[in-house]
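Morning!

This is the sequence you dropped in the shared folder:
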Amino acid sequence: MRTTRRASQVEVTIITGLSGAGRSEAAKALEDFGWFVIDNLPPALISKMMPLVFAKGSDIQRVALVIDARGGQFFAEAAHELEKLRREQSNFRMLFLDASDETLVRRYDATRRVHPLAPDESVAVGIQRERELMRFFRDGADLLIDTSDMSVRKLRSKLAAYFEDETPTEGLKITMISFGYKYGLPLDADIVFDVRFLPNPHWIDELRPLSGADEPVQEYVLSHDTSQQFIKRTRDLLEVLVPGYQAEGRHYLTVAIGCTGGRHRSVVLAERVAALIREHELSVRVIHRDVERDAVPS
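The structure's back. Tokens below.
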């Protein structure tokens, strides 16, 4: 499959991941965002179908292929075809949806479904088989999303941050995530900063009910010299790292900034660091994962 000028203008995303982690919801979301979605395409047909997408008369600008455990014995063939597509297609992305074993078991129990890889055994057995089978795809993912604590609405919101652009874009897309260590590390983070060393607005009575989106909290967090030093040194570090990621052909970079509850300090600093990155004309999205949770020490 030769790369043509038309092909270089088409954005290709592979949607894959564990059964029960939200793969179907992700496919529906991308379809709503205007993507042309093809579910459960046999691997042997990938090389036959893509030339039709790239054909001169085609009006498809964004195509998503769903690869899942139903491929079973065809996974080796799928891996080969996808690696070939990655080499030949500059706008290639792979999205992997994951979740904890406990979450997946709970979701299967709620729907009373059997696992496709363990129809006569426990769901837990099927999950472990699938994790092993999908290891290649997870390791090669450009974007990994942990849906363990996500509602469908939150998953769609996060996907929108990556995929709802009106036109395909090239280059590195950066996502800044603020989070609370109380609720666990973001599984999809490439770089994690811990800002729990900074003075905590939670212990100021008038600031406690507010969040990092409120000006009084911002003024408090940014008034400390340690905060300014963190911002400066984080900016300097990213000025070294980002060109390196770009040179390696990376399409996504997720930077997470965490405090205890994800409500105050991490929110302020994620916004401030994102603003500095935008000064370099880079694409940056900001997601505040835990700011809406109950107010806790942050």
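Headline: The chain has two domains: 5-170, 174-288.

More detail when I'm at my desk.
O.
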